[in-house]
UniProtKB/TrEMBL annotation:
Its cofactor is Fe(2+). Residues 35-370 form the TauD/TfdA-like domain. Keywords: Dioxygenase, Iron, Metal-binding, Oxidoreductase. Belongs to the TfdA dioxygenase family. The keyword Aminoacyl-tRNA synthetase does not apply. PANTHER family: ALPHA-KETOGLUTARATE-DEPENDENT XANTHINE DIOXYGENASE XAN1, DIOXYGENASE RV0097-RELATED. GO terms for molecular function: dioxygenase activity; metal ion binding. This is Clavaminate synthase-like protein. Gene3D superfamilies: Clavaminate synthase-like. Transmembrane segments: none annotated. It comes from the Eukaryota. Pfam families: TauD. The keyword Nucleus does not apply. The lineage of its organism: Eukaryota, Fungi, Dikarya, Ascomycota, Saccharomycotina.
Amino acid sequence: MAPTATIAQTVPVATLKATSLPDAPFGATIQMPEGVTDPSKLSDADFKVLFKALHENLVIVIPGQKELSPESQHLLTKRFDPTTEGNYGHSREFRHEKSVLKKDGKSVPRVPQVQILGQGTFQDHEGLDEVSLTHPIHDTFHKEILSQSKQDAGYTKFYRWHIDSALYGLSPPVCTTLLGIHVPNAANERQKILYEDSNEEIEIAQGATCFMSGARAFELLSEEDKKQALGTTVVYAPHPYIYISEAKATWDGISMHSEGKELSFDDLPEWETEKIKRLPLVWTNPVTGKHHLQAHGCCVWKLERENGEVLELEQARKELRRVLRPAISPKEILAFSWEAGDLVIFYNRGVLHSVTGHFAEGQKRLMHQCNIASGQDPICKV
């Protein structure tokens, strides 16, 4: 009897590589495998490396993606979360006339999970004859607005530190993908942020997207605060972006001033108690096991402690500012400077991020953003 031939099976080898961003507290640049230009088409082996890199580095950058289609961006974003049904991370109230998010972009008609963001007017873009975009600036959201002379001198503010999430009815997305398609040549355009409580300053590129690490925020807590944070639940208001529509943000963009300007629950769109989001203050990274302090300080309604103590709105806001503020110090944040074609993927369950900057008249920016509501809430593993 002739011997049976043995066919050797080749185990796929990942060739995608992640390299730490230079002179940054966290983040990495991704080198794609040879011959692969569309990251949604990565092999399983290479995507596994990408998934791990995201959770370890929190923010990863794939250069050269200017031509990435909305379909591919959606597929890539969805691939990071097998539990998702593919819906955009915000509910339909995203466009409500009273929502603070209503001006933050337009949807791509054929792929509504992808949002068009930026500054200026663009013609014939992704099925839209014309799209006019407005870059969010602190003038419209903060209580204390920088004087024109300060703005002329190059000063700006963190617009709003946040997690991408509806925070009502839907679970927070695992990640957000953000693609820079048309970016002003801002490398030499510098702006400054003054920390009003310490007089520190940080210089950033015009229109930089800033990130803070939730893991670092947790690390910076005292041992007593860590123990308390691990037993704290953040309760968000129903339709939170409508609830805060008349309130104004604090100078640091972490939370809101408590002046009684929030809408009453009776004045909100119809809401259901079971859809109110109650999330742990600390979310555990499933890859690294690290604890991340993750809370949207602008949308919080109250904090509930393990011992039964409840911090109502004003005290809850003050407490979140207290525990998050150290992690936005100049040396702790990543201020990402955009170049056309940059695809930034950030771990939405491990960082907070903020828009910054002002653009001059005539400057234009075009970006595509995608995040998808998860099928599961984040958890804290004590």
